[in-house]
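User: Last request for today: this protein with S-adenosylmethionine, please.
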Amino acid sequence: MTSKIKIQLYNNDCLSVLKELKDESIDLILTDPPYNLGKFMKDRQTNLKKMRENFFGEAGWDDLEYLEWKNHMDSFFEEANRVLKKRGSMIIFMSLMKIETIVELASKHKFYYKTTGVWHKTNPMPRNMNLHFINSTEGWIYFVNKGKTGTFNNKGKAIHDFIETSVIRGNEKKYGIHPTQKPEVLFEHFVNLLSNENDVILDPFMGSGTAGIVSKRLNRNFVGCEIDKEYFKIATNRIEETLEQQIAIDLD
Ligand SMILES: C[S@@+](CC[C@H](N)C(=O)[O-])C[C@H]1O[C@@H](n2cnc3c(N)ncnc32)[C@H](O)[C@@H]1O
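Assistant: Here's the final one, the structure of the complex with S-adenosylmethionine:
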C-alpha cells in the first residue's frame, strides 16, 4: 500500500495557510500564480471575452493593480522562504513580461535564481493568426532556497530549459474547466526532476489541482491552496478520484 501519502487541501487564501505551516516543512514549491495580465488585457479592450467564454481576465482572480500584485507576491515569497527547506526548489510559472519582477522579489527573500525556462504549447488556439504571432509560450523560473543546488534527478541526461507539450487533454477537464489549467505531463516533468518519493510538495495557487494529482501519482505528499470555491471543488474532485484509483490499484 502507498496510503502513507498525505494530501492537505485548503479552500483559503494561501498567505493565511502558509502562516500556519511549519518552518522548513516543504521540499518543492511548484506553482502557477496569477500573472497580473487580466487587468492589462481588459484595459486593452481585446475581444478575448467574446472569443473565449472562459477568458481568465474576466474570472476576477487576476485583476489586481500591478503594485498590489507585486506586494502580494512579495509577502508570498517571504512565507515561501520560511516554509521551504534549505536547498528546497521552487518553480514559478509566469508570463514572460513579468519574469524580472519575480526574480527581483524572490532574490530579495534569499532565493537563489537558477534558470528562466519556456513552456511551448504545440497546439494553442490560433487566435487572430492573420494579425499577429500566436501566443504559444509561458515562462517558468527555477530557484533554490538558502543554497545554490538542490535535488536534480536528471539521471545523467542533459535537461534543456525548454519544455514542449500539448495543451490539456479532454480527460483532464472531466470535473470542469479552469481557464489556465496546466497539463499533468508538464507538472510531472518538474516533480520527477526536482523532488523524490515521500517529499512534500506545495502549490499555493493550485487552481484545478494539477500539482496535487501529479504529486499523488508520483508518491509525493501534497499541500494545496485555492481561494475560489468552484475551482477548489474541481481540484478536490480530481484529486479524490485519483486517490480512489490509487487504492483500487493497491488492492489488486
Ligand atoms: C493560474 S491559476 C492556477 C492553475 C493551476 N496550475 C491548474 O493547473 O489548474 C491561479 C489560481 O490561483 C488562485 N488564487 C489567486 N489568488 C489566490 C490566493 N491569494 N490564495 C490562493 N489561491 C489564489 C486563483 O483562483 C486561480 O485558480
